[in-house]
Design brief:
Elements (H helix, E strand, L loop, with lengths): L3 E4 L2 E3 L5 E7 L3 H4 L3 E5 L6 E6 L5 E3 L7 E6 L4 E6 L8 E7 L2 E2 L3 E5 L2
Amino acid sequence: QVQLVESGGGLVQPGGSLRLSCVASTSFFCIRNMRWYRQTPGKQREWVASIDPNGSTISADSVKGRFTISRDSAKNTAYLQMNSLKLEDTGVYYCNCLEFWGQGTQVTVSS
């Protein structure tokens, strides 16, 4: 069993930045294969970004150039750096590895 715990969400103005963190309790595999998803109001949960064991990253077109996924293996932590936030980025953000999900962290972009 792997526990994933997200943090770092909050209220931010459009154009602002936030950094989300996801701590994996036990799995070395998970921290090397992490994904971020989000659930925005009225929409299904959508994939945001992924990082693979080689450190290669990919991200959804909607966040490309603004969001960056990274990890610190020594801390068993993955990050999602979110810059130039838009109103439509509002939602609950989840980290995921295999069948394991965190509880989510709320991001609200509002003026």
